[in-house]
Amino acid sequence: MGRKFLTTTLIIIGLAVLWVPPVAAEEPVRVAILTDMSGPYAGICASNVDAVKMAIEDFGGMLLGNKIEFYYRDHHCKPDIANERAKELYERERVDIIIDVPNSAAGLAVSEQARLHKRLFISVGSGTTEHSGSKCNRYTFDWAYNDYMLATSVGLWGADNLGKKWYTITADYAWGHDLFKNFTAALKKKGGILLGNDNVALGTADFTPYLLKAKRAKPEVLVLLNAGKDANNATKQAVEFGLKKEMKIIHALIFVPSIRAVGPEVYADDYVAGAWYWKVDTPGAREFADRWLKKFGHRPNWMNPANYSATLQYLRAVKRAGTKDPKAVIKQLEDHTFGDLFANPGYIRPEDHMQVGKAYIFRAKRPEEIKEKDDCFEIVGTIPPEQAYMDPKKTGCRMGGF
Amino acid sequence: MSQYLITQLLNGLIVGSLYILLSMGLTIIFGMLGIVNFAHGALYMLGAYAAYTVVGVLSGNFLIAILVVPLAIGLIGALLETTLLRRLYRVEPFYNLLLTFGLMLVIQDAVRIGYGPEGEPFNIPGALLGAVNLGITYYPKYRLFIFAITVLCSVGLILFLERTKVGAIIRAGTEDSDMVDALGIDIGKVFTFVFGIGAALAGLAGVLAAPIQNVEPAMGMNFLVETFVVVVIGGMGSIIGSIIAGLIIGETLTIGVLIWPPMATTLIYIFMAFILLIRPRGLFGRAEFLD
């Protein structure tokens, strides 16, 4: 063979190597959390950012050959901001999933964006039953709890154990009204009576006129259908006016940060439902709580492991599917039973995309009963998922296609 | 009258008291300096947090907090005036409005970053716990205490403005600050002093509110807009106006809940709109303000 021939061959081979287009790398999996980092529920929800981050790190940080990308955004608990951010995240950052979104109106807005953009949304923070009811869609999942679970568990238990004559004070927005509907349904089921209700604007500082009205009605149980700042103010003032000497108080949603914010004397002997507590016997829960304590100086509230769980189960579903294509991942999540530090077992219902698990009834401890940091609750009852959640055939969800 | 109604009316009085303290401060700041102080709610919140710091963190007692905190917030106010606000007197008032709005956001976020968003526990001081037998009804001791302090401050402020030399200067400055300046009085110092007093009153309201409300970074927002309503209804620059309007608003908000709950907060805005239509200067305001 001539040298010319060798050179030409080498040049041709060289060009061929350069000519071959690079193998198209699959895009990285992009996980976003959209939550309240500076609004009324920030004390409870801002830490969810750390929970999602921790879940990604614990998973290994890598998925399908790429580093998992993590985004976090603040919607200040406002539906219009949530809508904007969700749109941006799906369009500009091209995230594959948005997690959390407290505030029911905000959650519903993001759910619609998920449906329009055909990407996933796992709602953890917002409690509306519409996520798994009339407004359900194939791309939205509801994790950890909803108003039906909160109301029904503590409602049924409360009507049996605390009293059947109720007075309710309701936060005047989507979530409050949804809670009111579910709580009164639970009360009715047990043959109780509603003596009265007041709707109070979100962010009200002075609950005294409503509390005095409630006191006058002489209920056995006062049900405060609000959370965060509003619950703090209402309960502080209820103690001030001596309501606790005359009735028991049930809350819709109370977390350890709220108890820290006003002091345990304020919430002592009140009742609330929840999906998890750091002392629960679910495997992995105590280790998670200890890690959290070491890292942040206090125990997690149950929204934290709920967000951790949603993230982890999503990442595992992507792994099982072998692709991040939403349809494939959704099919992996539906009808899936899992066990993690949040729910063991947890189950994702295909009919309405509700993640169901056990519900717990808590009594807030009196200051003298608190022996270690953040040990603010005593578990007084558990409700199995079949009772805590609505029959999937009755939710009004018509789960469509993609 | 039923015990229930009396208790509600008393509550309105107490809510009104906080509005009185807040609006007296806001109105003299506007009356004399022409500044619409959006940071007023933030100063109120700082008062509550300062009280928490004195009592909760430094283990002082509540009495010390009541004496020391308004002074501290007043000094902070004076500092803000000398370093920031006075630079914008020569330009349109709009600039100072933007500045105080910005200050409000900065102060709120600084507290949120420093203390956390959830809030701090603050309970009614032991000596003021319990209720007093008023004959017709029992009423919380602490709330009556708030009313007593408010009465003291209002009377004190009125006497100060009417009977002292400094008060006369301030009143004159409210009418015509250029003339006071021309008469050789250092109007700059008077301005600083007035802003300091306004801030101190807001801080005092914060200390008094801390035991009965959730002490958290955005707590000033609950009161800010309604305080402006009180000032507009009472008349900008008028102390008497603040007192009367504060009581009216406090009672309206409380009794409104009994009569027509969804409209309770809206009623005060309707009233404000009504006042603006028939007497824009406010109940006790001076006509010159509208120039």
Describe the structure.
Chain A is an alpha/beta fold. Chain A has 2 domains: 30-145 and 282-357, 3-Layer(aba) Sandwich (Rossmann fold), CATH 3.40.50.2300; 148-274 and 359-387, Response regulator (Rossmann fold, 3-Layer(aba) Sandwich), CATH 3.40.50. Chain A has 15 helices and 17 strands. Chain A has a 5-stranded parallel β-sheet, sandwiched between helices. Chain A has a 4-stranded parallel β-sheet with strand order 9-8-10-11, with helices on both faces. In chain A, helix 5 links the parallel strand 5 and strand 6 (120-123). Chain A is elongated. The mean pLDDT of chain A is 91. Chain B is mostly helical and 291 residues long. The longest helix of chain B has 31 residues, at 3-33. Chain B has one domain (3-219). Chain B has helices at 3-33, 40-57, 62-83, 93-115, 141-163, 165-175, 177-182, 187-209, 221-234, 239-259, 264-278, and strands at residues 131-133, 138-140. Chain B starts with a helix and ends in a 13-residue tail after the last helix. In chain B, helix 2 crosses helix 3 (62-83), helix 5 packs across helix 6 (165-175) and helix 9 packs across helix 10 (239-259). In chain B, strand 1 (131-133) and strand 2 form a beta hairpin.
Please render the helix and strand layout as text.
The complex is a heterodimer of chains A (402) and B (291).
Chain A lengths: L2 H17 L10 E6 L6 H4 L2 H12 L2 E2 L2 E2 L1 E6 L4 H13 L5 E4 L3 H14 L2 E4 L16 E3 L4 H15 L3 E7 L2 H16 L3 E8 L7 H10 L3 E5 L2 H13 L7 E4 L4 H7 L1 H4 L3 E4 L10 H12 L6 H19 L4 H8 L3 E2 L7 E3 L6 E2 L2 E6 L12 E7 L1 H4 L14
Parallel strand pairs in A: 1-4, 1-5, 5-6, 6-7, 8-9, 8-10, 10-11
Antiparallel strand pairs in A: 2-3, 12-16, 13-14, 14-15, 16-17
Helix pairs in contact in A: 3-13, 4-5, 6-7, 9-10, 13-14
Chain B lengths: L2 H31 L6 H18 L4 H22 L9 H23 L15 E3 L4 E3 H23 L1 H11 L1 H6 L4 H23 L11 H14 L4 H21 L4 H15 L13
